Amino acid sequence: MVCRSNYKQVKNNGYQLESCTWGKQVFIPDNVVGSIEEASELHESYDYVIVTTKTHSSDKLVQDIKPVISQKTCIVLIQNGLELEVPYINQYPNNSVISVITFVGVHQVESGHLEHFLPFKMNFGNGRHSEESYLPQDLSNIANFESIIVDSEIKYVVTDQMRMVSWHKVQFNGTLAVIAVLSGGLTLQELLTTPHTRELADRAISEVQGVAKKLMGKGFPSWLPAVEVHHNQMINNPVPYKPSMLIDFEKGLPLEYESTLGNIVRIATELDYPVPICRTNYALLKQIDIKNVTKTRV
Fold first, then answer.
1. Could you tell me which residue ranges the Ketopantoate reductase C-terminal domain spans (predicted)?
2. Which of 106, 2, 83 is nearest to 46 (CA)?
3. Which of 86, 93, 113, 177 is the most buried (most CB within 10 A)?
4. What is d(CA 243, CA 252) in angstroms, rounded to the nearest whole number?
């Protein structure tokens, strides 16, 4: 496991976990390193390289993981955003890429201390969008990945519709998280129970749905949760829920929005589909992010 700011804590003590699923326990990884370079120096041949970082500089990360990628390595992307698989497929055309979309509520309350308060749900499948582009080893790599998590108490779905699943999630984290920041720090419960912010959110979500439908030619399948179901889960959550973007904003950290909201706006532009609310949110958030990070560094 590659750790960054919490490296010393996790290396020495593991992760202190308070989980709604697994209770209180300590998770000690088999090996903890402080960088990809250090991982490569172990001279291991990795079956899976799992990428869970924010997507601020995904193009750089595509290059950074090169020392730990062998012929047999399968790259697993557990990140937020649209079309994230493309640069990895282009850089590593002979390696399987698994796309993973997760729904989970977890905060690192302090270094190495994780508070997990919403059950883990996962959808995953081939990062290549069409069967014609599948590699011979893709299906076996997906099956082996499933065998790793099948007994973990994580609810999951294996699907060949990962592009659709990505758009389904981005309709929420490309809208609700953004409005939480722009509104001055509303939790999702506050945002969704306040009439004017709820209306704004629903209109932004409708724009994203329109872009997705024009791009893929159909709406979201019925097995993915409807907007109202998602909203009710957020409203009824026993813990006031702050999206990670809002937490990053409060800490003065760079915000992860180019891969979500930024790509929504760019793809809408390519399709000539109007998204006035998303476009306005993008312009405002971009400026707020610049100002917030600059203020923190001064």
1. 164-288
2. 2
3. 177
4. 15
User: Where do the domains of the chain lie?
Assistant: 6-159, 165-296
- Record the tokens describing residue 60, joined without a space: 């750089």
Superfamily designation of domain 165-296: N-(1-d-carboxylethyl)-l-norvaline Dehydrogenase; domain 2 (1.10.1040.10)
Q: What is the DSSP string of 169-190?
A: HHHHHTTHHHHHHHTTS--HHH
The token pair at 31 is 């090996």
pTM for the structure as a whole: 0.91
- Tell me what pLDDT residue 297 has: 59
Q: Determine the Cα–Cα distance for residues 280 and 259; give it in Å rounded to an integer.
A: 16
Q: What is the largest CA-CA distance in the chain?
A: 56
Query: What pLDDT was estimated at residue 296?
Result: 63
Fold type of domain 6-159: Rossmann fold (3.40.50)
